[in-house]
C-alpha cells in the first residue's frame, strides 16, 4: 500500500514566500549533506543533494517537514511518499526504511525534524483540555502524513528563524515548539497523538510495549508476559500492536535486532556469528537468512558494500 501527499493541494497565498524563506534558512544552517544538529536541541536539519539508497533506522517520535525535494518512507510493506510543505509524524518508535527520491545540487532535499516528547504532549493536552482535540476516532498507524496549514507553517518558520538569533532560543524556542505541537493536536490527525500520550488508553499501553521491546530486543520474547506487563489480553496486544506498527511484536523485535546487528557490524570487528548470537539468534544460518531478507544481501556482502560507499 502506498500513501502519497503532494504540495499541489496547498493554497498558494503566501505559501511560496514562506517556503522560500524556509529554503534559505535550511541551506544556511545545513550547508552540506547529512543530519545537522542545531542549538535548538530537539531540532535537526537534514540535507541531501542527490537521491539516496534505502536508509534503515529506528525512528523515535518526531515531526518531519520537507521544505524541498521528495522522500519515500516504508513501514513494513507500506509506503508513504511526501514532498514540500507536507509533514510526516511518527508518534511511536518505529523501525523504518526511507530514501530520498527527488534531489539535485540546485534543488537539494531539505527536511527538518523536530523530536516529540510524549510527556510534553500529555502536559499540553491537560493545559488545553477545555478546547480539546478533534474527536474523530482513529485506529491508524503510529505514523501519518498530512498537509501543512498556514498556522502550523508559521510556527515552524518562527522556530527556524530563532537560529539567526541564538540569544532568543532559550526563551522562545519552547514557546514555538509548544505552538507546533498544539497545531498538530488541533489538526485532523490530532487524535493519534492524543491516544499515544494519554495514559491507560490501549494505544498508550502498546507504546509501553514498544518501549520495552526497544530496551530488551535481544532477550527471548514471551507474548503472554508482555501482555500481562501492559495489562492487555494477548489477543488485544496482537491486534492493537499491529494496528499501530503494521507488525506483530515478534516482527517488530526482529526488525530491531537486525538493525542493531547491522550497526554493530559496521562499527565493530566482530564476526557475523558473534553478532548474531549477541542479538539473540540461535544459529548463524538463521541470522544470515533473516538479515538478507531485510537488507537484500548477506551480512558480509552488505557490510562490505556499505564500507566501500563510505570511502
From TrEMBL:
- What is one Gene Ontology biological process annotated in the Swiss-Prot or TrEMBL record? positive regulation of metabolic process
Q: Which SUPFAM superfamilies match?
A: Homeodomain-like (SSF46689)
Report the superkingdom from the record: Bacteria
Which residues does the UniProt record annotate as the domain HTH araC/xylS-type?
207-305
UniProt-listed Pfam families: AraC_N, HTH_18
UniProt cross-references to SMART domains, sorted A to Z: HTH_ARAC
Concerning PROSITE patterns, the annotation shows: HTH_ARAC_FAMILY_1, HTH_ARAC_FAMILY_2
* Presence of keyword Chloroplast: no
What InterPro entries has UniProt attached to this entry?
Answer: Homeodomain-like_sf, HTH_AraC, HTH_AraC-typ_CS, Tscrpt_reg_HTH_AraC_N
Please verify whether the record's keywords include Transcription: yes
Instruction: Kindly state which keywords UniProt assigns to this record, in alphabetical order.
Output: DNA-binding, Transcription, Transcription regulation
One function term, GO molecular function aspect:
sequence-specific DNA binding
Query: What name goes with this protein?
Result: AraC family transcriptional regulator
Q: Which organism is it from?
A: Pseudomonas lini
Amino acid at each position: 500500500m502506498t500513501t502519497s501527499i503532494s504540495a499541489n493541494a496547498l493554497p498558494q497565498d503566501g505559501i511560496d514566500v514562506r517556503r522560500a524563506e524556509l529554503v534559505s534558512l535550511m541551506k544556511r544552517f545545513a550547508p552540506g549533506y547529512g543530519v545537522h544538529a542545531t542549538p535548538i536541541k530537539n531540532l535537526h536539519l537534514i540535507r541531501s543533494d542527490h537521491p539516496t539508497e534505502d536508509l534503515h533506522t529506528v525512528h523515535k517520535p518526531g515531526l518531519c517537514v520537507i521544505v524541498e525535494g521528495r522522500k519515500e518512507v516504508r513501514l513494513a510493506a507500506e509506503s508513504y511518499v511526501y514532498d514540500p510543505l507536507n509533514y510526516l509524524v511518527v508518534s511511536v518508535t518505529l523501525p523504518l526504511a526511507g530514501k530520498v527520491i527527488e534531489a539535485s545540487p540546485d534543488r537539494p532535499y531539505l527536511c527538518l525534524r523536530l523530536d516529540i516528547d510524549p510527556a510534553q504532549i500529555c502536559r499540553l493536552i491537560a493545559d488545553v483540555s477545555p478546547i480539546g482535540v478533534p474527536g474523530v476516532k482513529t485506529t491508524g498507524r503510529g505514523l501519518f502524513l498530512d498537509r501543512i496549514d498556514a498556522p502550523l507553517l508559521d510556527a515552524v518558520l518562527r522556530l527556524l528563524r530563532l537560529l539567526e538569533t541564538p540569544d532568543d532560543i532559550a526563551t522562545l524556542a519552547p514557546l514555538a515548539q509548544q505552538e507546533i505541537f498544539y497545531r498538530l493536536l488541533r489538526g485532523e490527525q490530532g487524535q493519534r497523538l492524543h491516544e499515544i500520550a494519554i495514559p491507560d488508553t490501549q494505544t498508550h499501553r502498546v507504546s509501553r510495549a514498544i518501549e520495552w521491546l526497544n530496551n530488551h530486543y535481544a532477550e527471548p520474547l514471551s507474548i503472554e508476559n508482555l501482555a500481562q506487563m501492559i495489562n492487555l489480553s494477548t489477543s488485544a496486544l496482537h491486534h492493537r500492536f499491529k494496528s499501530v506498527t503494521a507488525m506483530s511484536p515478534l516482527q517488530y523485535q526482529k526488525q530491531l535486532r537486525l538493525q542493531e546487528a547491522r550497526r554493530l557490524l559496521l562499527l565493530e570487528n566482530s564476526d557475523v556469528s558473534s553478532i548474531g548470537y549477541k542479538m539473540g539468534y540461535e544459529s548463524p544460518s538463521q541470522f544470515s537468512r533473516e538479515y538478507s531478507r531485510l537488507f537484500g544481501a548477506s551480512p558480509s556482502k552488505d557490510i562490505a558494500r556499505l564500507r566501500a560507499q563510505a570511502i
